[in-house]
Amino acid sequence: MSEPISAHSYIGAVVIGRNEGLRLKQCLTSLRDDIEHIVYVDSGSSDGSVQMALEMSVRVVELDMTKPFTAARARNAGLTALLEYNPQLDYVQFVDGDCEVQRAWLDVAFEFLSIQQDFAAVCGRRRERYPTATIYNQLCDIEWDTPIGEAKACGGDALFRVSALTAVDGYRDSLIAGEEPEMCCRMRQLGWKIMRIDAEMTLHDAAMTRFSQWWKRNQRAGHAYAEGYALHGKSSEKFKQSECLSILFWSFLLPLAIIVMSIKVSWMLVLFLVYPLQIIRLTLRYRRRLSDVKVAFAYAVSNVVGKWPQLIGMLQFVKNKKLGLRSQLIEYK
After folding, report:
1. For the whole model, what pTM was predicted?
2. Which of 107, 135, 291, 314 has the fewest other C-beta atoms within 10 Å?
3. Would you place residue 202 in the very low, low, confident or very high pLDDT band (cuts 50, 70, 90)?
4. What's the CA angle centered on 172, arms 166 and 176, to 5 degrees?
């Protein structure tokens, strides 16, 4: 009797990180027990991450930091190294160095992709390791909980089919954020599909403790929406158009209209009450799936107020594009 097919022989992993310390060790340990071929891509760590990875028998790629860094560039470098030494691999698990892969994930994800040949990637549930440590961590945990089923994109953690990655030439190196949705968009244009299944995938440590981190994270999202729209907004699906229009409406067009109207009719300023009313509306909607009304309220506030840093990110992209400048990385930790 032949032995059952094992995910171990077909899957490699690419981990990216910088100064992740113990979190990187947890990440690599969670992978090493299940798969043999792992590449860690380091982007200028000063905490001994490279040496630790080498001591764990993990192949290391050290990025040339004289060139502009992006997570997309790091993932591509890791994928190139992984396939150079292991061209037989059919699947690649991408994971950020601040995440820990859950024990059963690789077997479940492998089984799905081995059966569903028209899917390029599969992702599962990413959870925050310390969701109640700060409200910002809690907001991240809610954000990760996207609907189960066929999706337009996955996040930084996902199992990809190598043939789909090579078909689109991997990630777009120049993107400072939003590289996964953009690559998934190109995959879907070729007929591939993306799936999110009901399975525990990774534990993530956002380590967000300050309002400024939340602000920069939203700013980065706005930049990603604008750049994504610039790249694929004229496609049939109008990639990221709705996100960009929503940001423009709530953070610029609506307040500008209210201010202009109030110049002639001062009581028109009362229309700014639409913002707290929107927060209440969203709180009631989120309350259906969130157990705590306070958490639902915080998530609603974040989604409404977050439009302003997102607008700044969009304007940064537009300005740099007009001037022919390369956008700088927007880091929140």
Report:
1. 0.93
2. 291
3. very high
4. 150
Amino acid at 302: S
Are the CB atoms for 233 and 241 separated by under 8 Å? yes
Domain ranges of the chain: 7-209, 210-333
Q: What is the pLDDT of residues 291-301, one digit of tens each?
A: 899 999 999 99
**Homologous superfamily of 7-209:** Spore Coat Polysaccharide Biosynthesis Protein SpsA; Chain A (3.90.550.10)
| Beta-ladder partners of 11 | 91
